[in-house]
Amino acid sequence: MCGIVGYIGSDNIKEILLDGLKELEYRGYDSAGIAILEEDEINSFKAVGKLKNLVDKTASFSTNAQGMGIGHTRWATHGKPTELNAHPHLGEFSYVVHNGIIENYQELKKELQSEGVNFLSQTDTEVIVHLFEKYYHTLQDPKKAFVETVKRLKGAYAILLITKVDKDRIFFAKNGSPMIVGNDENGDIYFGSSDAALIGKAKEVIYLDDGDYGWSSLGNIEIYNDGTKKELNKKPLIGDKVSAQKGGFRFFMEKEIYEQSEVLSDTIMGRVLDEEIKFEELDKSFFEGIERIQFCACGTSYNSALACAYLFERDAKIPTSVEIASEFRYKDPLLQKDTLFIVISQSGETADTLEALKMARDAGLKTLSICNVDNSSIVRIADRTLLTRAGIEKGVASTKAFATQVMVLWMLSLYLADIKGTMSREEIKGEIEVIRHIPKTVVVEDRLHEKIKRLSKRYLHGHGFFYIGRDIFYPLALEGALKLKEISYLHAEGYPAGEMKHGPIALADSELFTIALMPKSLHYDKVKSNVEELSARDATILAISPEEFELADDFIKTKHADHPMSEFFEMMVITQLLALEVSIRLGNDVDMPRNLAKSVTVE
Predict the structure, then answer these.
(1) What is the rounded distance in angstroms from the CA atom of residue 538 to the CA atom of residue 457?
(2) pLDDT below 50 — which residues of the chain?
(3) Catalytic site residues?
(4) Cβ–Cβ < 8 Å for 472, 522
(5) By C-alpha distance, which of 465, 537, 475 is closest to 301?
(6) Is the distance from CB of 34 to CB of 70 less than 8 angstroms?
(7) Is the CATH number of domain 444-585 3.40.50.10490?
(8) Cβ atoms 100, 176 nearer than 8 A
(9) Is the CATH number 3.90.1150.10 carried by domain 254-441?
(10) pLDDT tens digit sequence for 111-151
(11) What's the predicted TM-score (pTM) here?
(12) Using CA atoms, how far apart are residues 42 and 69, in angstroms rounded to an integer?
């Protein structure tokens, strides 16, 4: 997601900031900006879209003296991607950049507004700079003002702040979002949200811990935590930018599996309120006259639609169908004006999905896109768009894209249920409570990953895999099988568990691997019965469940949960890790599997 850079020194400040932001483009963004404090002036520049737009905007600006600067690439969360909402955000005499979410920003904003502070943006970030200046006016000490500001913030954040009242220092704080500070042999100071922004510049770095805050001037770094000054734990900086972008993981896909907790937090941010789901991109009038939902997508996006079709019918009580885009285009579909046509695409450029969207638009249907890339073709054509906020996904096999698509659609089903009155306010509040806990549910535990690494060596041969599940876990079985096929090149199929006896069970023997999704919260006894039938035919069973299953050859224990979606997301991570580890053991290129492309822009 968003990227941060900072610099103190006498080299070309503008170019160092822009170069650092360029190295962070892989994180995903929709706007960018820099602020430079040189002598007594702060110059700030912002641009929507690609970094090139910011480069063009700053072409006539140059820096000549010693000074400092901060920069940011933003992925819209609070507020649309506009120049006003882009970072850095300004107060009277200070500028700030920030990654993460200030959970209590609404409370802080109301407090500041009641004291006469005027806000220019829709973002949570702007409260930081105004809060800092409020405390400075009272304390007349920028260090004390910054400490008091950080004390008031709740949530995840990485912050850089510069101010005219202290022209020598950059102030920083880190909690839950990555932040690195480093120096070169001349004492110049560099900040970044990943190693990639600092490689080729800093010689040694400090990886800040949660709760760290402080300030830095030329040749000097001071870090505090809970009021205590810390010893500086400097480490040499690696020199491989691709490795730095991977964040220490073996493959981008592995990194993206681990990122799912963070990106799901971004997906729900500002949309999940205490008692309701709110999408600033939508209003209730958009759904007037809508009597049915039609999803259209390909591949992983199709699987996310199939899973959430259950939720739309169950929660919003609205008839819902799901179409594969490549088939939809050629079936002479009956398109009715009371249908909301929803297309799903990670890239926003999927050719079959794009053409299906055009057909629906030309037929006069209302259209909505679920997409990860703003300003993509699908986003430009659809009447409305909900961005998934997954950030750039470099692994060809989608992981965090799937997770965020499912989350957006789940929230949309509740949004519709509220409009239609098919769920009580208490029921919606209960769903919201579950949604808030999902980012913790998908955190990858070392114990789990190590177990899957060990298990993977037993699943390298045989004549194929069955992934089976019921209800929403049937589409998850399809997605689990797809992940394995894409990167391991082993044959795998997803099936509804109850369909095994209608033909596929003929394949069952000891060389058939069955991945059984057995949630306790939904149809457990039915799935158990289906798995027992396979076990009786000597199939090799890997059971994924919170309940011990005595007939399983292998067993991955999940947490007990009352809500099926909690189990869904936990099992999703397990199936992703299994595909990853099997592929690695087979020696495959996990991120770039043969014959596949990240964005399918041809039929």
Answers:
(1) 20
(2) 601-602
(3) 2, 598
(4) yes
(5) 475
(6) yes
(7) yes
(8) yes
(9) no
(10) 999 999 999 988 889 999 999 999 999 999 999 999 999 99
(11) 0.73
(12) 9
